[in-house]
Amino acid sequence: MRVLVVDDEPLARDLLLEFLAGSPEIDVVGAASSGREAIAAIRSHRPDLVLLDIEMPGINGFAVVKSIQADDYMPLVIFVTAFNQYAVDAFDKNAVDYILKPVDGARLQKALLRARGRLLDGSKAKLLRAITTVGQQTRIEGLSVEEALESHSDAVGRLPVRQGDSVQLLELDDIEWVDAAGDYMCVHSGGETYILRCTMKQLSDRLSLGPFARIHRSTLVNLNKIQEITPLTKGECLLHLGSDTRLKVSRNYRTAIQHLLV
What we know:
single chain, 262 residues, alpha/beta, Rossmann fold, 5-stranded parallel beta sheet, 5-stranded antiparallel beta sheet
C-alpha cells in the first residue's frame, strides 16, 4: 500500500514512520505536517491510504477529508488522534479505523490489515458510502443477475434491478457507469444509484449488449456518456460524464477508450 502520514507533531509523525518502515508491504509516499500540506500531498502522490491526525492548526483532519471528497480520487483514511470524542464523526466519514495516541504498533498493524482488505476487496470508501446512502434512503433489496434474468428473460437491452417490492428494467443506453463495491454493483442511471448483488464479470457479460467498456478493475462506463477526456500521468486519463462525474481510466484498461483519443 502507498501510505501518506499526516501529523503536526514531529514526534508522533516520526513514530508512525518508524512503525511503517518495518512493514515490507508498505510504501511511504510522503509525510505532511498540516492539513494544507496533506491536501496537496494527496493530490500529488495519490496514496492508497492516509494516516491522518484530526487536531491540527488551520485545516483539521475532517476538513482535509471534506476537501478531498470533491476530487476524482479518494484514498482510504485511518484517523490517528489523542482525542477519543471524534470517533463517531470519524466513522461517519467512512474511516477505515480510529487509533488513539500513543500509538501501539500491534494496533496499527491491525488497522493496516483492515485497510489492505478494503483495497483487495475493491471496497473503496466512496463506493461504500454510495451503498450506505442508498440503503438508508430507499428500500432496495439485493437481486442476483441470475434471479433477475430468470424472471425477465425477455429483457433484451435492459437490466433488471429490484427496487422495493418491484423489479425495474433499466434501459442499457440510460446507464451511465457502474462501480463495484465488494459483493455489490452500484449502477448509476438518471441521477439514481441502484444496487445489484452480483460479480463484475456477471454484470460485464450482461452489459456487453450495450456500449460499455471496462476502464478499471472495478468500473464500467457507457462510452456514449463520455463528454470529455483529460490525460493524466503514467498513461492514465480522466473521463468527464456531465458536470459532476469524473472517472479515472487505469493504465491497464486504456485500450478500451483508445479509439476516442486523437
